[in-house]
Specification:
This protein is an alpha+beta fold and 591 residues long. The protein is built from 25 helices and ten strands. It is globular and about 85 Å long.
């Protein structure tokens, strides 16, 4: 390999390490990698940043606006209500999944699957809670069905549009709306059927953070500090009136590194003592009224107007600015005007001090905030889901038929070839603003800039792999490793490698890194490069093994109370099915 190829390889490896470890957000990693290659003389600026002028990121942005319109009008809510039913609390899980997953997969074929899951998951969790059911057997299948539906058409996921854009860069026409369906439809149908069959057997019953809170109110804890020179210092617990608090109980005292538990009524309080109380979260704010006590997490809990209080569950995504930081570091209380009451991770409440806890992607935070919190922060990008406990009504339901009509028109126009997908998506976006479904600001805020940056920057990294010969060398290594499988080995190697990468890094980055390798491998074995490109798109979306490989998996992680190990239970057989079906269809009908 040339020196440029070795430098590109080093940058790619460094990028993979940073993405896997989550040291920096994906947009920073991939944009930094591309800039490094420009500074190092491997790429010229035009090649490095050509991805931002490619149709792919522009189309993705337009489809984000459409998905936001569907969400804000609640266009899918009536369908979801009919699918779940009202008096069907005893309906079998398999029956519910049969009714629910096919429409979800169908909707995901034409709308971005992330907002679909973000809209429906809280409603399903609330429906299950009202009927005394666990939502766990429903929410992970919901995410998987949305992912499977996304591979049916070229607009189902941003990954498909990325691959289509990469084909355009090679001088080929973009993917047709239904060109992927020959592979994606069998994968989706087989995958949904497998999920319906196996989910009730393989997924254990879990409980969400709110369900746990309601069932174990006395387990929630909050720490208060005895104020220096306050009226409580020097008094016994009983004299201070801390034994007769209604609904809140003093369970321990931490004093200069020593823990006193249980706490007797004659225990004398000292300035600086940290008192741990347990009780009903509705009564935690009452502790603020006790003179001589101050919350150790005062910047999280103090000052919320009790007349406008509401509970919210929020889920942190991999690109959230909060991931990797503590509540104290980000000044959560002052930044969001919300109090963090509990953090749940992998279905378990985190018991450490909230202000010192390092947050992770997938964490579910239970908040006490002003009732306008969801309106203010659901588009911030810090939270994948902002769900008010008890639900919220869509603000513009009268516009829902118009949104559905425009969505259908986009599919007809793009599918018939009257307009290409980019033009159809842009016209739809303009129509949504012109008809008042969305304001211009709402349309702008709907676009996930992190995804757009990842796509645009990753194109430059892929161009470097191609221009330096690194893709050709990697394809040779891949073909050698799978040579014992014959002609089918090249395709098998491409798909397996893509699946492994997409579980470790973002699906778009995995697709961009694997595309030049797959394209070269197809040419080497005399196969159709477009069929290999479609295989990469399908495999890059086949993220079923972890809660962090795909955004929809992260959304349901906390809401379903799942543990990390729950995902491979159902995800591994589903991944094997996707692998087998994709290899079979591509190899014997398309290659």
């Amino acid at each position: 390999m040339t020196l440029d190829a070795w430098m590109t390889l080093a940058v790619v490896i460094a990028s993979l390490v940073l993405l896997v470890r989550g040291t920096l957000p994906p947009p920073v990693v991939l944009l930094g990698a591309t800039i490094t290659l420009v500074v190092g003389g491997v790429l010229d600026p035009e090649s490095a940043f050509a991805g931002f002028a490619n149709p792919a990121p522009i189309t993705v942005a337009a489809l984000y606006v459409l998905a936001r319109a569907v969400e804000i009008t609640g266009a899918l809510d009536p369908l979801l209500s009919r699918l779940l039913g009202s008096g069907e609390g005893q309906r079998s899980t398999r029956g519910l999944l049969s009714r629910l997953l096919v429409p979800v997969a169908g909707a995901s074929a034409f709308l971005n699957n992330t907002p679909i899951v973000a809209m429906t998951a809280p409603q399903i969790a609330s429906w299950a809670e009202q009927r005394g059911r666990s939502a766990a057997p429903l929410l992970m299948p919901l995410s998987f069905a949305a992912i499977l539906g996304g591979v049916i058409t070229s607009i189902g996921t941003s990954t498909n549009l990325v691959v289509s854009g990469l084909l355009v860069d090679r001088g080929q026409p973009p993917l047709g709306l239904f060109e992927m369906s020959r592979v994606g439809l069998p994968v989706a149908l087989g995958g949904v059927a497998l999920v319906v069959l196996l989910a009730p057997k393989l997924l254990p019953e879990r409980h969400s953070s709110m369900a746990d809170l309601k069932e174990q109110l006395r387990e929630f804890s909050v720490d208060m500090r005895v104020v220096d020179d306050g009226p409580l210092a020097g008094l016994s617990v009983e004299e201070a009136g801390l034994r007769q608090l209604q609904g809140v109980f003093l369970v321990r005292i931490e004093r200069t590194g020593h823990v006193i538990a249980p706490v007797g009524p004659g225990e004398v309080l000292s300035a600086g003592d940290v008192l741990s109380f347990v009780g009903n979260v509705d009564l935690i704010v009452d502790l603020q009224r006790i003179r001589g006590l101050a919350s150790t997490e005062e910047h999280h809990l103090y000052g919320i107007d009790e007349t406008r209080q509401a509970f919210f569950e929020v889920v942190l995504g991999a690109s959230s600015q909060l991931a990797g930081s503590t509540l104290k570091d980000v000044g959560f209380r002052s930044r969001y005007d919300a109090a963090v009451l509990a953090v749940h991770r992998a279905g378990q409440r985190v018991e450490s001090k909230l202000g010192q806890l390092q947050l992770r992607a997938g964490d579910t935070l239970l908040l006490l905030a002003d009732s306008s919190f969801r309106q203010k922060w659901r588009e911030s990008g810090d939270f994948l889901v902002v769900a008010r406990i008890g639900g919220t009504a869509p603000a513009r339901t009268r516009k829902a038929p118009l949104v559905l009509a425009l969505t259908g028109l986009l599919v007809i126009v793009a599918g018939s070839g009257l307009l290409d997908i980019l033009d159809a998506a842009l016209v739809t976006t303009i129509a949504l603003v012109a008809t008042g479904v969305l304001t211009l600001r709402e349309a702008r805020d709907a676009v996930d800039l992190d995804v757009i940056i990842v796509i645009g920057a990753a194109f430059g990294l892929g161009a470097a792999m191609e221009q330096t010969g690194l893709a050709s060398s990697a394809a040779s290594v891949l073909l050698s490793a799978f040579s014992s499988f014959g002609a089918i080995g090249a395709l098998l190697g491409v798909i397996v490698t893509t699946i492994v990468l997409t579980e470790m890094i973002t699906n778009n980055a995995a697709a961009v890194l694997m595309f030049p390798i797959a394209y070269t491998a197809a040419a080497t074995v005399g196969a159709d490069p477009r069929s290999y490109a479609i295989a990469v798109a399908v495999a890059a979306s086949a993220s079923f093994l972890t809660p962090i490989g795909y955004q929809t998996n992260t959304i349901v992680y906390g809401l379903g109370g799942y543990r990390f190990s729950d995902y491979p239970r159902l995800g591994l057989p589903l991944t094997i099915l996707v692998l087998v079906v994709t290899v079979g269809v591509v190899q014997y009908t398309m290659a």
